[in-house]
């Protein structure tokens, strides 16, 4: 009987969450798209601000669902005292990447503490109804991923992609922003970890190019480089598992990373010595993050035993 009640509860929860998110998307999506079309004719700060308000309204509905439909999920959030976050700031953020739930965690944490978070995303997502065009309208840097063979055959592809990302980053300077970069470039799996022969226990190898580009364009005008670490101490969840209430605990740690004095001395793409120096700096950040994840897991395991 208990198992049957649990199943019915999950079915009811799934129906309510799915219907609410779907209805909210159809309510908020068309205005964002309609206002976005006007930008084809003229740029408007007012329209950008309105679109952000509409998007935050959509995120707040998702967060309301998390608070009221998923009360069993316990959050453990730690923010470094040196990190002074506010809604008018300009932030670059890096984060480990394990699941589509990571983005929801970021939105849940950030919507009341930081400006709207954009992140580097694949160009192919532009074809997802509502969501893809909204990414473009809201200023998400969208990257076309070309294989090494394609770039070798046509080197201009790489330059074209970098220029589009550069323009997207520069457009963010007209407003407060949080720009998120998943340095691993893909979600963590045991198979990928083994295939890479990653030197980290909990992370894939970081890719420094996107962060280097963002710092080159925005570095002098950001308030902080923020390192977010997300830990699912029980297991890495799927998106459906999260919304069905099958994620008992989520831990989030945020700290400020001090930028070295040399960060804007050269161009990552053009200077091999600088590129090696930058990659070494990112590797150090990743080593510290890997250690932090171990400590977070140990602390959470101890707290569950007490």
TrEMBL record:
Q: Does the keyword Nuclease apply?
A: no
Q: Does the keyword Acyltransferase apply?
A: yes
**Keywords tagged on the record:** Acyltransferase, Transferase
Show where the Phospholipid/glycerol acyltransferase domain sits: 91-233
GO function term, MF aspect, one: acyltransferase activity
Q: Record's superkingdom?
A: Bacteria
**What's a Pfam family in this record?**
Acyltransferase
Question: What name appears for this protein in its UniProt entry?
Answer: Acyltransferase
